[in-house]
Design a protein that fits this description.
alpha/beta; Rossmann fold; 2 domains; four-stranded parallel beta sheet; 12 helices; 37% helix
């Protein structure tokens, strides 16, 4: 059983001598598409105090800045340097260099992967029963603009006959269409959609964030690794690089990933067009061992997250000044 992240976030600092004030899930569920409302803890400050703010969802990127981090820093004022913020977005240091101390730990991914690892015997055999008969899948829930563009382009310019393609309620799956989708119950949906994941060799992933950078890597991408699929991930600029930073093989010798740093206006189209031969089945690949390594990496990622978190805390938090 993996340690619960709430315990990790408090104990790691307490062991260094801090008086920890912890605010779990500080993003209030009333997002206005601009900036999350923030819940703050009551703090009785001393020089030993360390406030830990847990941001359980993505943080916004607006005009090259992160409004939530700006608001949190303003709230704590001259004590902001005694505040650590746990974030899901990778690389927020590129848009924020203020007094707050940032720590990457994707609690959503941590919990999901930990649970699916415990349930592994319930699903792993599905991927070895029969050969995959579909070249690719492209599942899209909420019809965000880049997802609509991708599906429309596939329909118009690619052979989608017999492929697993969905877009909200507009283009339903033959089984479990979007009207029956269990929202954020990702474990349930992983089990329900085994017939898709185990039968598709390539996964065209249209991630949650596209124009917001730096962004998050969600279950949509992680499911491709668990399913031992070749991923074509269409998300925020640099998401392919960030997947590699987590230890995943992005198969650059098979997938043309130059699109990863293209402009928002063309990135989704470049991802499809530069890999057209692959998606039409005209480019063969035999990657079983490397795909299995991605599966293994996904299953061990919870421990990787914990180790990286603890190491960064120890490197950047020397303990309170008691002099």
């Amino acid at each position: 059983m993996s340690i619960h992240y709430n315990q990790l976030f408090t104990d790691t600092f307490a062991e260094l001598g801090y008086d920890v004030v912890y605010q779990p899930s500080c993003l209030i569920n009333n997002y206005d598409q601009q900036c999350w409302p923030i819940k703050y803890p009551e703090v009785h400050w001393t020089d030993r105090t360390l406030v830990v703010m847990h941001c359980q969802d993505f943080l916004s990127i607006r005009n090259g800045k992160c409004p939530e981090l700006q608001v949190i820093e303003q709230h704590f004022g001259n004590r902001a340097d005694q505040v650590a913020v746990v974030v899901w977005n990778i690389g927020l240091e590129t848009v924020y260099n203020g007094a707050l101390k940032l720590l990457h730990f994707p609690t959503h991914s941590y919990e999901l992967l930990s649970n699916l690892r415990e349930q592994k015997t319930q699903w792993i055999d599905n991927f070895y029963k029969n050969p995959r008969t579909k070249i690719y899948q492209c599942l899209n829930g909420i019809p965000r603009r880049h997802r609509v563009d991708v599906v429309n382009h596939l329909v118009k310019h690619f052979d989608i006959t017999g492929k697993f393609i969905s877009l909200g309620e507009t283009v339903p799956l033959p089984e479990y269409d979007y009207s029956t989708y269990f929202g954020c119950e990702n474990e349930t949906n992983w089990h329900r959609l085994q017939y898709v994941y185990s039968n598709s060799a390539i996964n065209i992933v249209t991630e949650t964030q596209y124009s917001e950078c730096p962004g998050i890597i969600t279950e949509k991408t992680l499911f491709a690794f668990l399913a031992q699929q070749v991923p074509i991930v269409i998300g925020y600029t640099g998401i392919v690089d960030d997947c590699e930073s987590l230890g995943f093989d992005m198969f650059r010798d098979v997938v043309d990933t130059a699109y990863d740093h293209a402009a928002d206006q063309t990135r989704w189209r470049d991802a499809l067009e530069s890999n057209k031969k692959l998606l039409l089945g005209k480019k063969k690949f035999h990657l079983d061992q490397r795909l299995q390594k991605n599966l293994q990496r996904a299953l061990e990622l919870p421990e990787v997250f914990v180790k990286r978190f603890v190491n960064k805390v120890r490197e950047n938090f020397p303990g309170p000044d008691t002099s």
